Amino acid sequence: MVIAIMGILAALALPTVRGLKPNAKVAATRQLLDAVSRARQLALSQRTTVYMVFVPTNFWLDAHYTYPLWTPNDKSTADSLLDKQLLGYAYVCLRGVGDQPGGHTPRYLSSWRTLPQGAYISLEKFTPAIPSSPPVLTITTNGGMIAYQVYGFNYTNNIPFPSQTTPSASPTGPLYVSLPYIAFDGMGQLVSGVSGQPELIPISEGSVTFARDPATKEARKASPQVTERPPGNTKDNYSLISIDRQTGRARVERRKVL
User: Fold this and answer.
1) What whole-number distance in Å separates Cα of residue 219 and Cα of residue 173?
2) Is residue 250 part of a domain?
3) What's the Cα-to-Cα distance from 156 to each of 131, 162, 176, 183, 212, rounded to whole Å?
4) CB atoms within 10 A of CB 178
5) What DSSP string describes 116-134?
6) CB 19, CB 231: distance < 8 Å
7) Alpha-carbon gap, residue 115 to 30, rounded angstroms
8) What residues in the chain have per-residue pLDDT under 50?
9) Domain for residue 134, yes or no?
10) pTM for the full model?
11) H-run or E-run covering 78
């Protein structure tokens, strides 16, 4: 009888215990929401355009990835970003309050940070946005109506990568690895994305696995293996960071369970 009672209590408690398990997608969404808001606050405080840049996949294949010419510090920073593809972000400004007219000094306003394990920025979002390009992801309601249309990131090669000391690939001007970004101007308004559309950043639940050296366990230059788990959750159980174009303010859009 005692064993039977214990079994009943365990069965009743199991759903509650499962509910206490940390939700990686919720945690990543909250972190990215705070990070986007931080980018806007930095733009307002610095009174200049601030870029929130992300780590794309296969960045070492870029024609302007001049790794042999970099300092040991820049090389080390680049190597540390191999396992931050789809997960990493940082803040950069190209000019500041103290810069002389006509001149500018790029500055990283933060170190590279990553989203928590178990979630990542949807791979589709890293498709470069070009004029008149179609959405990279369309999210519909249960009735099949279009709820959200997600466009790819803007890209720029004017931002030093992986650090502010990295030399340009061109002696005549800034030319660096092309990076996906969102940006806010000195008034806090969104100045990236598709004109007339809010910036939508979808969060996917799952894993990003990186190839590693068997001896050192350090990440190698290889495309990450992305596994959406459960399959289809990016659209079926969507979680979007939505940034208003006029105000620059961000909020979370989630599927509502009726």
Assistant:
1) 32
2) yes
3) 15, 13, 8, 11, 29
4) 19
5) PTTEEE-GGGGSPP-TTPP
6) no
7) 10
8) 16-20, 258
9) yes
10) 0.88
11) helix 72-80
